[in-house]
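Late entry, evening session. Most of the bench is empty. Finally got around to the prediction I had been postponing all week. Sequence below, unchanged from the version circulated by S.P.
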Amino acid sequence: MAGLRIGSILLGTADPERLRAWYVAAFSPVESPSGFLDFGGFEMLVDGRDDVASKNAEPGRMILNFEVDDARVVADRLDAMGVTWLAPLEERNDGLFATLLDPDGNYVQIIQLSEAYLAAQRARRATGGTMLTRSKAFNGFSVDDIPAAKKFYGETLGLEVEEEYGMLHLRLAGDREVLVYPKSEHQPATYTMLNFPVDDIEQAVDALVARGVRFEQYENVDAKGIFRGQGPPIAWFRDPAGNILSVLQE
């Protein structure tokens, strides 16, 4: 999809101040006024949440990869910080790689790609890449009741919804699409499935409450369910299947 990119990631933690300070010390990102950490154009928000444990029990689900110019220098700095290495820095086919743990037990990799690998990447881009390079990728999630989901996303949230082959296509701003599919043994995820940026979070929350939406009363949110701590103001709510959604004021 032309112009589409993943612009940021939200890293949930029970101790945001400690984890944020660790990433600042480890990789020296640019710290934005909104609380995001900018790693060379890719932004990460370290956000406090009450639905995550202090240690990640399944760290293999997501690995943060940091491409660096000099992996040995970065590894020396991390050594001085006393990090725990899962795989010390080693030479592989495509460059230097190492895997370590952050304070929450998340997997973090530092990577220094070889010149040969980078040259091959440039050649692939010059010739148009693979068939997936031009593929209009989209994400999706499950629900346990398609009619209820269609009513919620179409009528309550006011999104453009199309139903096809027993599944829903949510048409979002920016020519984006999300697939909602039925699953008999559906279990709602513990993380936020969809984030809706808004200009005025107070107005958005009030409008959704008027439509019957109930906002989650997590720790440190105000009476309306808005969290105003580190990062942008954000409020969470659930769809009929229990999936977590949010509105946030950028």
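Two things to note before I forget:
The two ends are 23 Å apart (CA to CA).
The chain is about 20% helix and 35% strand.
Will write this up properly tomorrow.
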